[in-house]
């Protein structure tokens, strides 16, 4: 018996340490917020098709870790699950690399390709190769003015310029005089088009402000600096949800009277609209873009359908989210699908 | 730059104004000796940039604008300090930018998913950050690979892990809001609060930045560990020969960068409540730039802790000064580059003039 003693003592100390750790952790648990407070979040599901299994590639120009693209992908996954589709998702912000990803989808002999056209010229050749291989190709998100020229079947997205124009009109209605358009990625064409669109319809004056989007403290300082130099600025237009939320802090810090509006949503942002920190958001419904692109390929394969009749793009935006309708959208945003 | 190449064990560059009976330098006037110090050039460069913007951008003259510039400088500067020490020790760290985000993500997700007091996450993040530093240092010492390769590897690993784990755990690519959880307010007070001085709102990070800079200066100039840092950066072989614990020094320097990443990561988390997993990429170069502008040699063995403070300030000053001056934003990055190069050249010129003859 004696020789078991050390072992049992060791056991006892292990148990003691574990118990202590549990106690410490239990003592540290948060009484508010956290996972326990989160509702069980399940994505939308609509049964499942009994059509034969098919494979579809979705190739985007997403840069890693962006909340927007995550929502596009969720929409695509929901449609794939419903349509008995195996979804191959891949992305690369570099246009040449994106073309290579499309080529590998062709090599894999997928049943359909959905692609974003951020830089249409780079994708021209590979898209004609897909057509030669009899693989249907649809476009989404960017390239609303190019998709037909490249011979895509259908297109799902928002015209960035049109969205900007809509936001500009909205600023006029709000009586804005002077706005600043915060660009988180200098040289990104979609972002530039949005600011240009606002400029087109906005009757006041607007100027662009470049910020370093990968460093939030710097985003905050730069917007604060801008608001300080010009107390006449009465609207800050952000081009992405996280930057809009940071802009709210900057407005407070600069002691400015400016209001904040933005493009795109996420789950924090709907809360901020509800609280009145942010006036409104232009939503291009990324979930819908991903969902429809995949679903359209299923419809084409199984029923020969063309959405938009192969002539017109299917517009998913601009839809406005403000205090009047944020309540209905909030619960979907909490799930990360709006 | 041959004057830095001598074995640094017994003569760390310019350890203080006291010993000067070497016989070669004693005749040089005080002003020139002062100018030869690595931080003086950057100090003059920073003053030049400051004066330039005080003249061209009237809003900069306002106290609250200066507080805003100092805030931006402090978040760069807190990281630039350990990065500078590491660089004096002869290595550099490309993973420093994404490591900040890794730390913030760890703290946020751990406390949220387990519904714990946020301090549990904060402590866990510290452990993770130090472990990343230790891994970098250990792998470097163990394999003898250059720090460029080792930390480029960690940079890519962390970038991928940040994204994949966040997506796996939260189902999204950003973390959940933790601002309503227990302990948040205390942590915010420590990492991301602000206070008023004469009607100007000053961020707590500015205070921490100066405290850390003072601490780093003391360590570098007055402790044995400080001598070790100069020694391993100057000549590893001779440092080892005279009994400097090279392995310990290198690994601990990487862990120091881990500590800095943790601190800035916590600031990001507690001032913005959520973190996007794609942030931080590219920041490592800004930290390194601040250290180099601050007079730290890319080859190691020379530099100071106060230099990077001015380096970071210069960066913050130029970045926000361009906005205060209201210049065309399309030229933003080009302006930034020109101003920085200009400042570095002034820095270099001052040092050359001072050390000549």
UniProtKB/TrEMBL annotation, chain A:
Entry's Pfam families?
Answer: Peripla_BP_4 (PF13407)
PROSITE patterns, per database record: PROKAR_LIPOPROTEIN
Position of the signal peptide: 1-26
Extract the ranges annotated as region (Disordered).
Answer: 29-48
Species of origin reads Streptomyces ferrugineus
Where it sits in the cell: the answer is:
Cell envelope
Chief place of localization: other
Q: What is this protein called?
A: Sugar ABC transporter substrate-binding protein
Where on the tree of life does the source sit, at the highest rank? Bacteria
User: What does the organism's lineage look like at the top?
Assistant: Bacteria, Bacillati, Actinomycetota, Actinomycetes, Kitasatosporales
From TrEMBL, chain B:
**What are the protein's UniProt keywords?**
Cell inner membrane, Cell membrane, Membrane, Sugar transport, Transmembrane, Transmembrane helix, Transport
GO MF annotations for this entry?
Answer: transmembrane transporter activity
- Could you name the domain of life of the organism this protein comes from? Bacteria
- Disordered: annotated span: 1-25
Which InterPro entries did the record assign? ABC_transp_permease
Q: Where are the transmembrane segments?
A: 40-57, 69-88, 119-141, 147-165, 200-221, 241-264, 285-311, 331-350
| GO annotations of cellular component type | plasma membrane
Q: What is its main location?
A: membrane
DNA damage as UniProt keyword = no
- How is the protein disposed in the membrane? Multi-pass membrane protein
| Key word Transmembrane helix present | yes
UniProt-listed PANTHER family: ABC TRANSPORTER PERMEASE PROTEIN YPHD-RELATED-RELATED, XYLOSE TRANSPORT SYSTEM PERMEASE PROTEIN XYLH
Q: What does this protein do?
A: Part of the binding-protein-dependent transport system for D-xylose. Probably responsible for the translocation of the substrate across the membrane.
What name does this protein carry? Xylose transport system permease protein XylH
The organism is Streptomyces ferrugineus
